[in-house]
Amino acid sequence: MALIEFDQNKPMDIVLIGRAAIDFNPNEIHRTLDKVRTFTMYVGGSPANIAVGINKLGKKVGFIGAVSDDQFGDFIINFFNDRGIDTTQIVRAKNGEKLGLTFTSKV
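^ thats the sequence. predicted structure below, dont judge the formating
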């Protein structure tokens, strides 16, 4: 018995609204950021992370938000599309707005 029953006839189980960002996660662990030389880029921002997590659970997910009109915005849209997350309601910022970039640390 499932805790939540999803209507299989609906096109989406859930649609997240909010911020998508870019996280740069260090490949070398147990080092301070000044010693790290390589990073892996990943989607960040709480709503975006929730969208990816729910998608991993096999649910139909959509995302509403804005991304920058550059290669970082391309990364977010391609990341979602590669996982089957609906991106038809993501718009491109046209006034020079940029995505947030976050460098994480594992020390």
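The helical segments are 46-56, 71-82.
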